[in-house]
Amino acid sequence: MKNNLIRRLIHMIIMGIFLSGCSISSHTEKAPTVNFTAYKTFAWVAPEVVQKPDRSDNDIIDNHIKNSVSRELIKKGWQEATTSPDVWLDYTIAVDRSSKRESEPVYRYPHTQYIFGRRRIYSIWYPGALIGYRTQNVPFKTGELSINMVDAKTNKLIWQGWAKGEINASHITSKDVDSRVKSIFRKFNYPENS
Fold first, then answer.
1. Domain ranges, residue 141
2. Which residues share a beta bridge with 95?
3. Is residue 20 part of a domain?
4. What is the mean pLDDT of residues 68-86?
């Protein structure tokens, strides 16, 4: 009984470590010669300027992404401009299907065995024991959000941040957007002097 409890506890710890590994991974990259102290304002690229085949026609998600990114930049001291911004912002979304192999332990059912003695019948109880593992492919979807900053004067990409993680719905949701944007902007430390 004690062995079975210890095995279950170890199994739960391993599953906890595995599930914590399913978090969002984010990365940022900036052009090496860029000085972010020269940038203070931003604006979004108009939809007719950039054509994206992978962007969904979901206006709710589009507005949510823009509002979420704008909030994070304003927290960092930037301002949204209506005319002549320092940088143009744009984003892309990608949802990919994938699968992962998961294993789960298989236990034998506990059982009782009877032994006939001289004077009576003895019963011996055998606890459930690990007899192997069942492995299967589990499909899942990952969502990736990429945010680009382009210098308005030179039209060159100066910064890019992207975050990728598992999504639970068939489409990307507002909650997925918020978690990815926050993950990206935790690594956005510009301008350096602030």
1. 25-106+133-185
2. 143
3. no
4. 89
In a domain, 113, yes or no: no
Element (DSSP H or E) covering residue 83: none
Give the model's confidence band at 60: pLDDT under 50 very low, under 70 low, under 90 confident, else very high: confident
Estimate to the nearest angstrom the gap between the alpha carbon of 4 and the chain centroid: 34
pLDDT at 45: 87
Contact by Cβ (8 Å): 152, 88: yes
Q: What is the C-alpha to C-alpha distance for residues 100 and 137, in angstroms, rounded to an integer?
A: 5
Cα–Cα distance measured from residue 159 to residue 177, given in angstroms and rounded to the nearest whole number: 19
Cα–Cα dist 147/162, whole Å = 6
What is the full DSSP assignment across 32-70? TT--GGG--EEEEPPTTTS--TTS-S-HHHHHHHHHHHH
The total domain count for the chain is 1
Instruction: State mean pLDDT over 60-73.
Output: 88
Judging by beta carbons within 10 Å of its beta carbon (0-12, 13-18, 19+), is residue 162 exposed, middle or buried? buried
Q: Is residue 143 part of a domain?
A: yes
**What 8-state DSSP symbol labels residue 108?**
P
C-alpha dihedral sign at 171, 175, 179, 180 = positive
**What are residue 123's DSSP bridge partners?**
114
Say if CB 65 and CB 178 are below 8 A apart: no
Question: Any idea what the CATH number is for the domain that residue 62 is in?
Answer: 3.30.160.670
